[in-house]
Design goal:
Order of helices and strands of chain A: HHHHHHEHEHEHEEEHEHHEEEH
Keywords (chain B): Cytoplasm, Initiation factor, Membrane, Protein biosynthesis, Transmembrane, Transmembrane helix
Strand content of chain B: 15-25%
Number of strands of chain B: 19
Structural class of chain A: alpha/beta
Radius of gyration of chain B: 56 Å
Helix content of chain B: 40-55%
Largest sheet of chain A: 7 strands, mixed
Transmembrane segments (chain B): 12-36, 185-207
Number of helices of chain A: 13
Structural class of chain B: alpha/beta
Strand content of chain A: 5-15%
Distance between the termini of chain A: 31 Å
Oligomer: heterodimer
Number of strands of chain A: 10
Strand order of the largest sheet of chain A: 3-2-1-4-7-9-10
GO biological process, one term (chain B): central nervous system development
GO molecular function, one term (chain B): guanyl-nucleotide exchange factor activity
Number of helices of chain B: 18
Family (chain B): Belongs to the eIF-2B alpha/beta/delta subunits family.
Largest sheet of chain B: 7 strands, mixed
Strand order of the largest sheet of chain B: 12-11-10-13-16-18-19
Chain lengths: 302, 575
Amino acid sequence: MDEGELVEYFRRQMSQDPDMASAVAAIRSLLEFLKRDQSETLQGLRENLTHAIERLEETDSSVAVSSGGELFLRFISLTSLEHSDLSQCKNVMVERGELFLKKISLSRGKVAKLCHTFIKDGAKILTHSSSRVVLKVLENAAADKKRFTVYVTESQPDSAGQQMADKLRRLNIPVIVVLDAAVGYIMEKVDLVIVGAEGVVESGGIFNKIGTYQMAVCSKAHNKPFYVVSESFKFVRLYPLNQEDVPHRFKYKADTLKTAEDLNHEHPMIDYTPPSLITLLFTDLGVLTPSAVSDELIKLYL
Amino acid sequence: RGNIGRSWPDAAMARLGVLILLPVVFESVVSISFFLPVRTRKCLKEEIHKDVLVTGEYEISEQPNTKTNLKITDSSGHILYSKEDATKGKFAFTTEDYDMFEVCFESKSQMGTGRVPDQMINLDMKHGVEAKNYEEIAKVEKLKPLEVELRRLEDLSESIVNDFAYMKKREEEMRDTNESTNTRVLYFSIFSMCCLIGLATWQVFYLRRFFKAKKLIDTKMPGADKETDLSERIEAFLSELKRGDNGSGSIHGSGEIARETTALLRRITAQARWSSAGDLMDIIRKEGRRMTAAQPSETTVGNMVRRVLKIIREEYARSRGSSEEAAQQESLHKLLTSGDSSEENFRQYFPPLKANVIEAINEVLTELEGTTDNIAMQALEHIHSNEVIMSIGRSRTVEAFLKDAARKRKFHVIVAECAPFCQGHEMAASLSRDGIETTVIPDAAIFAVMSRVNKVIIGTQTVLANGGLRAVNGTHTLALAAKHHSTPLIVCAPMFKLSPQFPNEEDTFHKFVSPHEVLPFTEGEILSKVNAHCPVFDYVPPELITLFISNIGGNAPSYIYRLMSELYHPEDHEL
């Protein structure tokens, strides 16, 4: 399977199921790549995979794809440690890979189950941009017969917030779209803030759509709980200390990176929210405080 | 040939005669000579068959002035032959019965004739065939010598045949006796065996009853009695919990509740019927749900149940031989590397599981015993001389903590009274009894006094999963005041207070009691116009807390997640 086919497969996955997380699609494509791979040695396999991941990242420069790819590589290394023979190893990998995919497709459900109990009756929730996980959470809470109102920021430049509002309206949840600039204004009215994440970093902070950081700062100032919902495959091994430390390949879209002359004139799509502003993280591994995230990552990578 | 019994003439001595006499088998010839002292009597006894001819010849030596009498008697006293002053002669008689015959020689003399030497007596007795005098028979019947010999042989053989018949008879008798003895012995031994067994059984029952009465052994009986006893205890515990900590129950303080719960869980493990770890976990979960439902605000009960469930999982994993890590919670690593289905259903049976679980629960109980002391031991590291410590309400842990430090350091304690129950007063009284300088202040003065305080040390009812507290009301005020003045807030809480709950469920989070404490019923007029609430607990967010001191050491609030993962399994968070 060459890289062109891989990208095609990936794109097809994304278009077939728009609800699927991009990391899941990436991992599925990589698994397919693994199945069709012809290399004789483990080293060769790893090299091919690394190239494949790079190609995928070029296609979709989200943090999720990157973290999904790294997770897959780690999965390969861990499995290859147990078996020395490549063909046997491959069979085991394929088997485990399928299992892994099955588990992570369920992770969104697990997160939603954990989080919706934190939404009380009559609550006013503020969320940012469009996140499928947050949607699932709100869906579960509505199914639990809870009454709440949702404020969504518009989230320019792609107006993703409007899409979120549409989806919520379809679920019969009262929703109000606010300007990105109105976050400080609306903060005193809301009870809690729930956002999704594109990536969760080692310190317990998150990468999310631009505008999340100021929402977090506002919620801290008003003493409102700031909850993050994310699946566990979005954990990345990065430790940014400020906004500058966020890698460029995440901040800007792939095409922008290729065509732009001066990145200073470009608008970043991602910002970094430090862990001190986050109250709790809801993941499929359980409810974590930001300090627990690094523990999870260490367990995996070391 | 033949036995002769000799008996001395004295009446008493006569009874000491030899008893064992073999029956006369063959014809016997007695030829005996002995000395007979003066004025003595010597007898010979012999057992002779029926219809036997007995002949005898005797000779007594002459002695002056002595007379010797010969008397032959049978056992019934009949005299068969008697001769006074016998010297020499013969006698003969035929026995009528199988009897004991006595031949007695008695010498009589006049008294005082000095030393008289003994007489010598010669006695020659023949019975049976020998006694027959064949010369006479030959003469009478005019038999030739050969015929005499034949006759003699004939008599001999006849006597032999008789003897054989007699032997056979005797043998039969013997055998009968033997058989009857045998049966008797058999019956006797069976009887004695039964007696023994009966005695042993009685002994066992008696002693058992005795020891039970003295309560030296456990009185649990197998079967249904065990179960009813167990459920009785659980019911008693539940009613204790429901009555609450108003002082009416006998359980005071969360430490005691934790101990009681753990002891009860150990009893359930020991007595309830279960075969696999899964069954035991179901039983404990069911009982745990009942117990937490009885008093939801008492989280210690739920915590201990979860601890025990974790213990069961660990012991099961250890019995299975799999590493304990495998049974641990979800992690990314586990997601990636678990090849098989991770559905652990705990259905395998391991015999030593019960003992292991009970042992582990005993360890937990030992840990519980020592929590207050372990916390108090760390006091000297945190409290320094001439410090001003502030506390609120009454906490046994903090009391022990401060008293331990007071042994070596001098410091001052300010206690906020914590209205409306004013437990702070009791705390202050107790501390001052130990020689600690204590001041009591009303809750409203907390902020005003805070600038002079070096440290705030408080206890709590529960430590929540995010590192926050559920503590007595007024604690949040104290925490905010401390934060404002940058005063460190130290929470002394033993590990059993750590609960996997989050402060999200408002309806079960708070406990309200009668507002009578806030606004007494005497203020009736006002009561109709206002709503009075009396909440018991406060929520303190984790960012206001500096340090947790527990029996395993000091930890930051951000580390609570780690302690929780060690104590409880995520599947048990929801009982």
